Amino acid sequence: MTSHSIRAGVVGLGSMGLGMAVSLVRAGIETWGFDPNPVAVTAFGTEGGRIAASPAEVGAAADVLFCVVVNAEQARAALLGEGGAVAAMAPGSVVVQCATCAPDAVRALAEPILAAGLHFVDGPISGGAAKAASGEITVMASGDPQALAKAGPAFDAVAAKVFDLGPSIGAGSQVKLVNQLLAGVHIAAAAEAMAYGISGGCDPNALFEVITASAGNSWMFQNRVPHILDDDYAPRSAVDIFVKDLGLVHGSAQQRKFPLPMTAQALQMFTQASAMGLGREDDAAVVKIFPGVALPRRDREA
């Protein structure tokens, strides 16, 4: 482990933020973290992280601050609200906004942060909790080149790939929405395919084995269908995340009157699952919207 002159902060120690924070610590970067969830804070402290009592305390300590929250409203509260990080940050420090947001919302968030003399990187992330824990996420970054360079050592600690999408704030978020469009549609398609196959008499395990060796496979099919096979819907990424993210995609397209028929259908599927009380289950639980399908059950295997 090597030590670095920069200090990092992470506001939001959820499934992605905790892994990123621990990766920063592992890289020898002094890292401060905050989350309202005491379990997450304890886990971070156990890994050698510095625990902060508020976003402001993180901001006061950090040269590079990652805001890893759920949406634009939470980001604005964590960065600019009462006890927010930005007011405590030294001029020239970098804010990396990682939440999935509409590009317009990110630009509105960046304006007062830049006006405060800070750098701002529009840096949504992808890869899931496992890659966050191993320091191998993907970052879709846009912003001033100086900001990206200053954040470079922190990015090296948390990411396998940082895509520089240019200086225009909002470009990173637009690419992330494209990624979420595809991710949501692929999960919905995988669920529909499994439900269809099982209803037609296919053995679900054999079906998974055949499809993952065939042209119909996708990364999401290969990653999410094992959750269905194991009857394991503990949330890695929840149904309600895709209600939110596909809603952002669909809403942004509607603003410019751009048709997204497959996104609209996938959004309806996740919304139906949420309405059925499945919103906090793993996003693979969208498979449960199909009636009369004998999905794998752990108690059946006993």
Automatic annotation (TrEMBL):
Residues 9-164 form the 6-phosphogluconate dehydrogenase NADP-binding domain. Keywords: Carbohydrate metabolism, NAD, NADP, Oxidoreductase. InterPro entries: 3-OH-isobutyrate_DH-rel_CS (IPR002204), 6-PGluconate_DH-like_C_sf (IPR008927), 6PGD_dom2 (IPR013328), 6PGDH_NADP-bd (IPR006115), HIBADH-like_NADP-bd (IPR029154), HIBADH-related (IPR015815), LtnD (IPR050006), NAD(P)-bd_dom_sf (IPR036291). It is an enzyme of class 1 (oxidoreductase). It catalyses: L-threonate + NAD(+) = 2-dehydro-L-erythronate + NADH + H(+). Pfam families: NAD_binding_11, NAD_binding_2. SUPFAM superfamilies: 6-phosphogluconate dehydrogenase C-terminal domain-like (SSF48179), NAD(P)-binding Rossmann-fold domains (SSF51735). Its EC number is 1.1.1.411. GO terms for biological process: organic acid catabolic process. The active site is at K176. Residues 170-289 form the 3-hydroxyisobutyrate dehydrogenase-like NAD-binding domain. GO terms for molecular function: NAD binding; NADP binding; oxidoreductase activity, acting on the CH-OH group of donors, NAD or NADP as acceptor. PANTHER family: 3-HYDROXYISOBUTYRATE DEHYDROGENASE-LIKE 1, MITOCHONDRIAL-RELATED, L-THREONATE DEHYDROGENASE. Belongs to the HIBADH-related family. L-threonate dehydrogenase subfamily. Catalyzes oxidation of L-threonate to 2-oxo-tetronate. Can use either NAD(+) or NADP(+) as cosubstrate, with a preference for NAD(+). This is L-threonate dehydrogenase. It comes from Aureimonas flava.
